Amino acid sequence: MLTLKAAGIVDIDAGEIVRPGILRIDGDRIVGIGGPDGALEDGALEDGSIEVQGEVIDLGDLILLPGLMDMEVNLLMGGRGETVHLSPIQDDPPLRMLRAVGNARRTLRAGFTTVRNLGLFVKTGGYLLDVALMKAIDAGWIDGPRIVPAGHAITPTGGHLDPTMFSAMMPGVLPMTVEEGIADGVSEVRHAVRYQIKHGAKLIKVCASGGVMSHTGTAGAQHYSDEELRAIVDEAHRRGLRVAAHCHGADAVRSAVEAGIDCIEHGFLIDDDVIKLMVAHGTFLVPTTYLADGMDVSKAAPELQAKAAIMFPAARASAKAAADAGVRIAVGTDAPAIPHGKNALELAALVSRGMTPLAVLRAATVTAAELINVTDRGRLAPGLLADVIGVPGDPLQDITVTQDVRFVMKGGKVFDR
Q1: 3-state helix, strand, coil in the chain (%, to 5)
Q2: Using an 8 Å Cβ cutoff, are 134 and 147 in contact?
């Protein structure tokens, strides 16, 4: 048995700080939570005093909140030692896995206890590296967040998530297979989805449109046909998996939503009509809006810089419009586009777009939990996983305190103190 004592606890549902902050933890679960008088809801003494068997961790003036969640990361990319143009053809899977260990540790210590690893688009020989990373973390071999892996992103030849596209490689360099996500036509996309599921993917990622860094075509152009999108969704949904789509253009997002895709990543160019459609369908949006502020494109090709000059202002406006309209928004960073460990910058960006700190915290906790279809996390409440972080201030008043996480617990185990 373990008790955490702090200045307060964020009640995500009520939108307030419960003071003082007292959590009682048994194993990997929360079994009691403090009330306004300092008592514990479960098994408190009548005088409100705290009596526990086991360790008490006094966290002083910290405010406790649920472990945060990032719904779009790629832990197998970025990090120390990676070079943008050479790593795609130099880094073998073992090297990527070793680098991912550091990325996972930094992400966890930043207070993000759950992530979606949203689609490999690197040469792996067919291995689902994010599934292996998930297993290693779950086994306790290395430190990192809980991972919901997508395996390889499903993308058409030359699509935005075709790794040979980013470096404009000549034909024959870095050949990719259907198992590694390069799939054209209904039969191939079905095969690609089935392969990811067979080897442990917990959701499917699809490339539905171009992007800012696409070398060919406009950023919003639809990449898969409506028929191919429906086939991907059909395969995933029949097996109980949700589908996330990299997608920017309004028409492409409309096709993705109508095909049944569950979550749109980015959506920089969505318009009011598409936003209404997303609300009607209950489609989630992971806006990755900090990219518009923090992504450095100064060394990119002139035509890509020109795309960014159009896309980034649109991204700021569309994130605000979607939030105002009631789209279900979940936090995602697209790390390493935001460096691993700096994930909380996205929370501040969403506040700058007009969301309240409470709405942003919900986007990083309860809404993210809904997106990955789990009920065991996202709040600090009895019976839920003891995923707890501590920050030096009130995040309901100043969301930037989430960039200074000073205590991290995942599943009842302290990882940073």
Answers
A1: 35, 20, 45
A2: yes
CA 192 to chain centre: 22
Is residue 320 annotated as part of the catalytic site, yes or no? no
How far is residue 10's CA from residue 110's CA, in Å, rounded to a whole number?
A: 18
Strand partners, 65: 389
User: What's the pLDDT band for 85 if we cut at 50, 70, 90?
Assistant: confident
**CA distance linking residue 129 with residue 137, whole number of Å:** 12
Q: Is 56 helix (H, G, I), strand (E, B) or coil?
A: strand
Residue pair 287/263 in contact by the 8 Å Cβ criterion: no
Reply yes or no: is the peptide bond before residue 20 cis, omega within 30 of 0: yes
**pLDDT band at residue 168, thresholds of 50, 70 and 90?**
confident
H or E stretch at 131: helix 129-138
Question: How many other C-beta atoms are found inside a 10 Å radius of the C-beta of residue 116?
Answer: 31
Whether 410 sits among the annotated catalytic residues: the reply is: no
Q: 């171009």: which residue's tokens? A: 210
The CA-atom distances, in angstroms, between 208 and each of 25, 185, 241 are: 43, 13, 17
Active-site annotation holder among 143, 334, 387, 410 = 334
Angstrom distance (rounded) from CA 97 to CA 285: 29
Q: How far is CA 264 from CA 21, 102, 194, 220, 378, in A?
A: 36, 28, 21, 13, 21
Choosing from 205, 262, 387, 410, which is the catalytic residue?
205
The answer, yes or no, to whether residue 327 has pLDDT greater than 60, is: yes
